[in-house]
Amino acid sequence: MDVDELPIGRRVAQWRMRRKMSQQVFADRLGKSKSWVDKVERGVRSLDKVSTIQDIAAVLRIDTAVLLGRDAQPDSATERVDAVDRIRAALSTYEVALARPGAPLAVVPAGELAGRVEHAWITYQRARYPQLIALLPDLLGTAQRTHAHGPVSGRAPLVEAYRITASLLVKLGEADLAWLAADRAMAVATGDPVLVATAAVQLGHALRAAGRGRAAMSAVLAAAYRIAPPVIEYGTPPELSLCGTLLVQAALAAARDGDDCTTVELIDEAADMAARVGDGHDHHRTAFGPTAVDLARVTAAIELGERDAVAWHEKATTQYGWQCLPVEHRAGHLVDAARAYLQADDPAAAGRALVDAGRLAPAEMDRPAARDVLARVVRCPDVPPTVTRLATTLGVA
């Protein structure tokens, strides 16, 4: 039987098993009993509440449309899960540490590895996520072997490989696995304050995505103040970029917790650093500068439920620095801007932001967070036809 013709309970069971969750774990995350889950999966109990289906989809980290049948077109979701499984397998390999017998694999020189890592970062920043997914499993294994062969020269490339992996996994909605990759980066970086700080950028992002805002703020602030220049006027652009990016991460974590005072203080502190760095730079792969800080103000305002998020967005995207940011950063921000417009009761503008994001970086619109926003927009009356076409193309109901 075609998967789309299966009863919804069977689809729930299949996705639960894909996520490697027991019925008890699944029930706990839903706030239901194991008996309730068992009855749903066997078709004894029907799922007739939209809110319940949405809760199930959130726990399974898939679109609600995937649970609802043929119109959902779940191929991309299935491919995404398969891709994540390949990355998970690469993160779960311990051949180097365990020195398992077998045909030895060639060790790539650190200089060549650095070039491969550079290519992976460019691929990520251009929002070419499918290509990056294909690269990462082999890159991780190669970086681990190079580091084992030359711990000093191979250290930074391995940290960077883990950073890229964590960044991509957050995009794919895999916060816990992103946390694992960022934690690996932190472990390898231990002893080098700058490398620790670079790894902490992704650690903060992963912890926020996993709903652990306080832990994120604690970790990134510790890393930021460890490398902060004693006097801001004497800080170098790379130092200020890294420290400022960590302050932004802390601010967004504070916003997630509803702490508006701390959010404003941290973003203002980051803005002072950004003013000294300027736009158009990408020190430590942070793309930090005044425009990046203004975009962070938009995200923080959305988290805090403030209506001035739209004004910040419209100001930031007309600045010179907007075009200097990586494609991934701009497209991801446009998805956030759509959320801001929805909060301002302007679904038409939200739809236009999503269409712009799709034109700029098609792969950005296929990630779970973007699809969720699109699903909310397309249900609104009088949305532009371009939004409906985008939703149809992506199979978002």
Number of helices: 22
How would a crystallographer describe the biggest sheet?
none
Strand content: under 5%
What is the number of strand segments? 0
- Report the average pLDDT across residues: 89
SS class: mainly alpha
User: Span from first to last CA?
Assistant: 23 Å
CA-based shape = globular
Low-confidence stretches: 70-74
Report the order of strands and helices. HHHHHHHHHHHHHHHHHHHHHH
Estimated helix fraction: over 70%
User: What is the gyration radius calculated from CA atoms?
Assistant: 22 Å
Show the helix and strand layout.
Elements: H1 8-18, H2 23-30, H3 34-42, H4 50-60, H5 64-68, H6 75-91, H7 95-98, H8 110-125, H9 129-149, H10 155-171, H11 175-189, H12 193-209, H13 213-227, H14 237-256, H15 260-277, H16 290-304, H17 309-316, H18 320-324, H19 327-343, H20 347-360, H21 368-378, H22 385-394
Helix pairs in contact: 1-3, 2-3, 6-9, 8-9, 8-10, 9-10, 10-11, 10-12, 11-12, 12-13, 12-14, 13-14, 14-15, 14-16, 15-16, 16-17, 16-19, 19-20, 19-21, 20-21, 21-22
